[in-house]
Fold this sequence. Notes:
The complex is a heterodimer. In chain A, helix 10 (229-244) packs across helix 29 (682-714), helix 22 (520-549) crosses helix 25 and helix 27 (626-659) packs antiparallel against helix 29. By secondary structure, chain A is mainly alpha-helical. Chain A has helices spanning 2-6, 8-26, 75-89, 109-133, 137-142, 145-150, 161-176, 178-193, 197-227, 229-244, 247-258, 262-286, 290-298, 303-314, 316-336, 345-354, 358-383, 395-398, 400-422, 442-481, 484-516, 520-549, 552-567, 574-581, 585-609, 613-621, 626-659, 668-676, 682-714, and strands at 49-53, 56-60, 93-98, 103-108. Chain A has 29 helices and four strands. In chain A, the strands form two sheets. In chain A, strands 1-2 form a two-stranded antiparallel sheet. In chain A, strands 3-4 form a two-stranded antiparallel sheet. In chain B, the strands form three sheets. A six-stranded mixed sheet of chain B has the order 6-7-8-3-9-10, with helices on both faces. In chain B, helix 5 packs across helix 6 (138-151) and helix 6 (138-151) packs across helix 7 (167-179).
Amino acid sequence: MEILKKYPKLFQWLFLLIVFFALCFAIDVPETYKFIRGQAEFVKDPNQSTFVFLGKEVRYYAFDVFWRLPPLLGWLPIWINDSLFFLMNDWMPMEFWNEDTQEYKTRPLVLQITRNLTAFMTFLIELIREILLGGLETIVAFTSWDWIDANPWAELPGLPWTIVAAGSAILAYKLGGRGLAIFAGLAMTYISIFGQWKPSMQTLSFILVAAPLSFIFGLSLGIAAFKSKRVEKALYPILLVMQTMPQYAVLVPALVLFGVGDHAAVIITMIVAVPPMILLTLLGLRAVPPEVIEAGRMSGCNNWQLMFKVLIPTARRDILIGVNQVIMVCFSMAVISAFIGAKGLGFNLLLALNQLNIGLALEAGLCISLIAILLDKMSLAWANKQVDYFGNLNFFQRNKNSLFFALIMIVGIALAYFGSIYFKGGYNYLFEVPHNKGISTADFWNKGVDWIFDTFFVYIKAFNTWLIVEVLQPMRALYLRMPAIATIVLVVGAGYLIGGIRSALVVCGLTLFIALSPWWDRALVTTYMATFGVIVSCIIGFTVGTLCFQNKHSTNFMLNVCDIFQTFPSFVYLIPVMMLFGITDTSVLIAVIVYATIPATRYTIEGLRSVPSGLHDAATMSGVTKFQRLFKIEFPLAFPHMMLGLNQTIVFALFMVIIGAFIGTEDLGQYILKALSDKKGAGIGLTLGICVAFIGLIFDNLIRTWVDKRKKHLGID
Amino acid sequence: MSEPVIKCESVYKIFGENAETMLKEANGNVDAKTFQENGCIVGVNNASFEVSKGEMLVVMGLSGSGKSTLLRCISRLTDATGGKIFIEGQDLLNLNNKELIDLRRNKMGMVFQSFALLPHKTVVENIAFPLQIKGINTGESINKAMDMVKLVGLDGRENYFPRELSGGQQQRVGIARSLAVEPDIWFLDEPFSALDPLIRKEMQDEFLRLQEKLQKTIMFITHDFDEALKLADRIAIMKDGVIEQLDTPANIVLNPATEYVRKFTEEVPREKVLLIEDVMDSSTTENIGDLKVLRDEIIENVAEKILTQEKTVAVIDNNNNIVGSINPTKIINTVFGGRKNNN
């Protein structure tokens, strides 16, 4: 009894676990239960039960309520789908002027709006794309097809790759100096020589539209939320869900609204990229010291000047992280949106992955990563650029970059012209290296992979089999063995113990949503994969982070590595693992582990860094050993920060698990992928996405509440 | 005397939701306790004073005494809940946004405790900032800012970022920025509080040198009584939002109005603060010795001379006219007397 009083929390947790296990053992697996491999709603099975809600028939396998809750929310996807179609096809028909047929036509309002939006996006993308690659659709947009037929000279010729490469090097030089310029030049030349020019420019044109638009929208909404509490309150839940929503899931409804193609991809990218931008803008603006705002006011700023000359520049650090996020999301979406017909590197990457041509996938992936890193560094350099007021420059010095670019233009065009004579009949390599005519290292990589596979096949296979048979399958079976009611008790109990009744209610709501959806089993599989990934990532991340923290150089080195790895689009991670482990759960999990280790490592280092140096010294003076200091001082204090890292690790892991569906998993992601190719998949895709988001939010809520309490307890902010 | 530059008439600042209705109901008799019970916090309570041209008013008080709030009311960074504030005759609280911005752009400068420099701008850009906000073109504003850089002695560091400067240097930038538009009124909110003692003393001397040259109308906030004595023409001592006493340093030291003020004055070395004229006897002019001292001499500087005299010493003004006298006993009384009784 004494012990009970001394550690009340410990016993509460023990009690919760006992209840959980008791429930697990008390509730038997129903005889009819089996993991449904197909999609239940499309299989006509006499064993299924049905119910009708809002005129929608929902079919499901009935079990004991304690084992699996009935899918009372099964009507939701169908209903979402129907509403979406109603909105698009029947709601508010209106007369609209049709430019092509020169007459009024009746069209539903939403359809008209989305089509106009689409046309606008298409125009923007085409404009940039045709400057880079040539084409005639931009000209057509201003004139007509007939006119262009009559005046073939007006077609945009596109820029020779030499000009683009040199131009980007000059721009990089102007923004960030010599190092960046060399990197830009080399990256562009690499892309050209390796025959990835056209898809790369297509991707670039997509990014150059999506990233600035996302930035502008995110910044404006962030400002609006900063200025008005009401806007913030309205935005907050959406932001929260969008943060943990897998990008796949957004694709499906957008497909219905905006159709297929680059324009739809831009809009989806904005939907995904804007929320983190809003959050970071808000965070940055909040952190501006009040005295700086007052200094701005006293300097006579009006509201506009105060926002754009004082607040935003002062909040620059967070806003730049936002820009970095936007660029990351854009590149990751550049790949994912290939599913809905966006052109470019992403499409090539998916195609190569599909054909298991690791070499090609690697090349495409490398190009994406190169462009991503380049744009990221350039945007950073741009924001940190300094003006020299005191240099006494003459006309040439002031305009040397523009003059140099003009020179490059002339040389480039001359070269291209020369090339057109020199390479008569063949391809003009000085204008554009065609896709299949560049140097390709694909064979080399493929051979390498084959060699690795042949040489280490036995070991890889043995490891693979061991992992799957001994670890993964039992773990998965354990997760699926949990009765729904036991899981809910566990999660809600944890919520109550950590955050009190409020947290318990929030977590309960989120869990119930998943439990009442038709995909509880799948959600369990997703959770099992994510759990495995998170555990391994955390072990690696915490260890590596702690080890690296012992030395200043290794700390910086590791943070830089994290930076670079984070810039890679998520799909790129699938390439090496598929190389080694083929199409198995192991591949997905290893990709998950690599991807999710980044935040785990980063937050560990940053957490340890946040320990005040005074304490560090105080501990040293008390005569602690290195280990004592680490375990008695640094870990306890860094722990809240590290837990936020855990939070990010979970989000990253969930993302990758869902993307892993591309390799082939049996979780929620598989259904999302299926919904993509389903005409009526919008509702399913969205509901599945919400399920995944809710899994993330359950952990998010628990961890955040715990961290806040712990921070208050430790008195750190 | 010409019109005061800053004039406050029973200014109130009360934080809380229904501050205004409560203030009206209180009818000019604001009691901090009753307000607090109703969820309002009294920041400034019935502040009335004037600052004339070229004068330096130091507002002294401990943290939470409402001194910074008072300053923010006068610079209208917050709106006063009640009362009237006139800046050169203009009713500050009735200005619209545009007029207020105009006023700040041309008439006011402010220095902050935490320097409040813009982290993304260099020294010279920070100083040029108010000029550029006003719409002055880049070249001209940078030139003007460079003059300011020289004025505060930061030449050679104009291209540094604030994070690369020490605290004292950062505050020099803050001072230069506040002076860039050549304001008539200069607000300083605990400008030296975040600095080390030695740097603080150096900055105070520098500040006095600048003020001698510029002759601005100044409101200076501090929590350091010694600083107030050193700099002020007049000192206002605040406690719980109320101005306890507003007078010259000498009068505050000699005649503290309340118990609270007295506590501050106890530890003050009077001989360093008071002038001969503060303690001299202006009636007795007989039986005067040969020694003559100037009336605006600090006691400390002449005490030794006076104390060696047996006779009363004559006090003269700058034109060598005898305006009063002082005897050694008076000096001893001033320096040592009166303290024990207060303990």
